[in-house]
Amino acid sequence: MNLEVKTKKVHIENSADKMTKWIGSASSLIVHTIIFASCFISILLGAPFDRVMLVLTTIVSLEAIYLSIFIQMTINRHTKELEEISEDVDEIQEDIDEIQEDVEEISEDVDEIQKDVDEIQEDVENIEKDVDEIQEDVEVIEVKVK
Q1: Are 72 and 19 in contact (CB under 8 A)?
Q2: 16 with 74: CB under 8 angstroms?
Q3: Which backbone phi and psi does 106 adopt, to 5 degrees?
Q4: What is the pLDDT confidence band of residue 16, given thresholds at 50, 70 and 90?
Q5: Cα separations (Å) of 105 from 53, 99, 118?
Q6: Which of the four pLDDT bands, split at 50, 70 and 90, describes residue 12?
C-alpha cells in the first residue's frame, strides 16, 4: 500500500472515530432532537406530511447505515488493538515465567551455598579442636622436656 492510500485510510479511520464519539455525546442528542422537532414543526406549519416523512426517513436510514459502518470500523480497530495487547500480555507472562524459573534456580543455589558454608563452618570447628588438642600436646611435651 502506498503512502497516499495509507494516509487516506488513517484519515477515514480518524473521522470514523470522531463521528462515533460525537454521536455518543450530549451535543449529538441536542442536534438530533432539534432536527426531528424541526421536521414535525414544519408539518404543523404546512409542509406536506408525505414529503417531510420521506426526507426524514431517508436521512435517518442513511445516518443509520453510516453509523453502523463507523461503529464497526471502531470495533474492528479496537479488536485489533486488543489482540496486540493480548500478545504483549502473553509475552510478559512468558517473561514472568522465565524470571520465576531463574528465581527458583537462584534459591536452589543459595541453599547449596548455605550447605557449603555450614560444612565449612563444621570443618573450621574441627580444625580448631585439632589445633587445641595439638596445642595441649605441645604444652605437655614442653613440660616433659623441661
Answers
A1: no
A2: yes
A3: -65, -40
A4: confident
A5: 76, 10, 20
A6: confident
Q: Are 55 and 68 in contact (CB under 8 A)?
A: no
**What are the cell numbers at 18?**
470522531
Contact 23, 67 (CB under 8 A): yes
Distance of alpha carbon 62 from alpha carbon 65, whole angstroms: 5
Q: For 31-64, how does the pLDDT look when each residue is reduced to its tens digit (9 = 90+)?
A: 999 999 999 999 999 999 999 999 999 999 999 9
User: Cα separations (Å) of 85 from 74, 78, 79?
Assistant: 16, 10, 10
C-alpha grid cell, residue 89: 500480555
Cα 5 to chain centroid, rounded = 30
